Amino acid sequence: MPTPTDSPFRCLIIDLMHESLLPMLKEVGVEATYLPEVKKEDVPALLPEYQMLVVRSKMRITADLLNHAPNLKVLARAGAGVDNIDDGVLEARNVTLINAPEGNRDAVGEHTLGSLLTLFRKITQGDRQIRQGQWRREDNRGEEIGGKTIGLIGYGHMGKSFAKRLVGFDCEVLAYDRQPVENPFPHVQLASLEELQQQAQVLSLHLPYTKENHHYINNQVLSRFQHPLWLLNTARGEVLDHAALVEALKTGKVRGAALDVLENEKLKTLTPEQQERLSYLFEHPRVVLTPHIAGWTRESYVRINEVLVEKLKAYLTSRNN
Ligand code: GLV
Fold first, then answer.
1. How distant is the alpha carbon of residue 208 from its chain centre?
2. Which CATH superfamily is domain 9-99+299-320 in?
3. Among 54, 84, 104, 303, which is best to mutate for testing ligand 1, by the most ligand atoms less than 8 A from CB?
4. How far is the CA of 60 from the centre of ligand 1 (A)?
5. What tens digit of pLDDT does each residue of 7-45 get?
6. The whole model's pTM is what?
7. Which residues of the chain does CATH 3.40.50.720 include?
8. CATH architecture group of domain 104-289
9. What's the whole-number mean pLDDT along residues 173-181?
């Protein structure tokens, strides 16, 4: 932590954060400037004064932006994904990255389970019908998670959090990750992608977005699944080729989908092709959409701050030793 002889460690916060962040930073001796409303074009001019920047999604972190931040030591991403940071730019400038998947993984696990139940039990469809004066029970007969095989692609913080919540459901859980991963749960089996493709009836995506993962789930990958699939995406829209998804919904290869993330979440900037795909998803009775809120709860709002400040404390302590 900064000592009295150190120059102050100053932190600029450019996104809306839970109010607990300011006292927490003060507690570890960091002077924070909270500018949630700052326009992104005004950020570069502010940066030279700061050793730390806290960002959620206001702007991309590029080499060009970092050229305005000669004193930057720590970049805190208030969330899990770090896909808004250009590859290699932090390493090149020796800036330490801290992020907070431990802060919102519980929220993501719960949301993923909720979206699977919403799909299986036709909750949004039934709700819409009743509001239109229709009481249609047979049409809303659902299915159960029990007895199904749930496949996870990506078995890090988020995949594990969903898997943990499936323990009471009497289902098989298979997890595939391209990295070697620990498996803390006896009810989960680590599997190859091929095993997942042979057995899974539900596919839940929990992989980060990187250039290599762009459209990781595409026509070819989907076509190799042996069973018609229910697809859940709480990861990033870009890992899923939405043209392939629409095609698979049309053929029945994908039976339904719960999407918390989309290929383009700025709805005013959709290309005609993206608009056409989204319109198809709007009309589909077995598609459930939510606005990138899987990790977005009252609890995670605070916990993200706690995780960031814990990690910052560790950084400051190691720097002073
Ligand atoms: C949310 O999508 C996050 O990356 O935290």
1. 8
2. NAD(P)-binding Rossmann-like Domain (3.40.50.720)
3. 104
4. 14
5. 789 999 999 999 999 999 999 999 999 999 999 999 999
6. 0.96
7. 9-99+299-320, 104-289
8. 3-Layer(aba) Sandwich (3.40)
9. 97
